[in-house]
DNA sequence: GGCACCTGCTAACTTTCCTTGGCATGTGCA
DNA sequence: TGCACATGCCAAGGAAAGTTAGCAGGTGCC
């Protein structure tokens, strides 16, 4: 078994599209140091909570971060996010393998089908 | 030294944004098997030349493919593309390092500056 | 000359993403 | 009760990306 799981074509696109954003990269970088809750992270990054929440949602949808709701000592509900220890190696060969499992949204054809 | 060169934050975003597209992934996959010229590749992928050209341009801008203009035996000018043997490993730590060199278009602050 | 192949560009439309602002809810504490 | 903190959602405008269609140029061959 390798350190990198075989990515589905669609998964690969989703993960790449998710990471292809400066804000989301900063979020991952910040969470790589230590987990944080939404409001605190928003202050730390200097962006609005609404914006951060959208990015966190995408990161979570791609499986790159996870959320855990906790109660602070003073009873506040805090939603702590932490980064998932992913390892993704990108090479032409990996991409060629992933393309085999690519869903085609355009014409809805199946993998291996000829046009 | 690792197999992957240290990516700049901006470079990383550019490469990720470039690869986060089904068509461009297919192009890379096709070129990974063998190099091809524009028209032939367009037919092979079932997309228009104009569309392919835009994607090829982005891939070349990100340094993932290279173009070489050649003359076929019958004198036709053929623009052959081939994939660059890139190796990019993506982990939270790599991202954290790349973020340090991220250009901030929003407020234009310098790397290392505190807020 | 006309057809078939190759190359490139640009304008314009459509779709998607990004971002902001506002609103609603709940808690603890002075 | 009012303030400060936490959570979330939704609507709307602006910016960027994707896609198509059309035009123009070049060569070889029947």
UniProtKB/TrEMBL annotation, chains A, B:
Gene3D superfamilies in alphabetical order: Winged helix-like DNA-binding domain superfamily/Winged helix DNA-binding domain
Entry GO MF terms: DNA binding; DNA-binding transcription factor activity
Residue span, HTH arsR-type domain: 4-102
Pfam families in alphabetical order: HTH_20
Top-level lineage group: Bacteria
Keyword Transcription regulation attributed: yes
Family matches, as CDD domains: HTH_ARSR
PROSITE patterns xref list: HTH_ARSR_2
Keywords: DNA-binding, Transcription, Transcription regulation
Keyword Glycosyltransferase: no
Matching InterPro entries: ArsR-like_HTH (IPR011991), HTH_ArsR_DNA-bd_dom (IPR001845), Metal_resp_trans_reg (IPR051011), WH-like_DNA-bd_sf (IPR036388), WH_DNA-bd_sf (IPR036390)
Protein name: DNA-binding transcriptional ArsR family regulator
Lineage: Bacteria, Bacillati, Actinomycetota, Actinomycetes, Micromonosporales
């Amino acid at each position: 078994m390798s350190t990198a799981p075989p990515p589905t074509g669609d998964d690969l696109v989703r993960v790449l599209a998710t990471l292809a954003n400066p804000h989301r990269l900063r979020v991952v970088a910040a969470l790589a140091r230590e987990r944080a809750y939404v409001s605190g992270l928003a202050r730390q990054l200097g962006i609005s909570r609404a914006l951060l929440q959208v990015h966190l949602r995408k990161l979570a949808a791609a499986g790159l971060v996870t959320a855990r709701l906790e109660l602070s000592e003073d009873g506040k509900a805090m939603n702590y996010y932490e980064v998932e220890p992913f390892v993704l190696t990108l090479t032409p060969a990996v991409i060629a393998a992933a393309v085999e499992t690519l869903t085609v949204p355009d014409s809805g054809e199946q993998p291996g089908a000829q046009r």
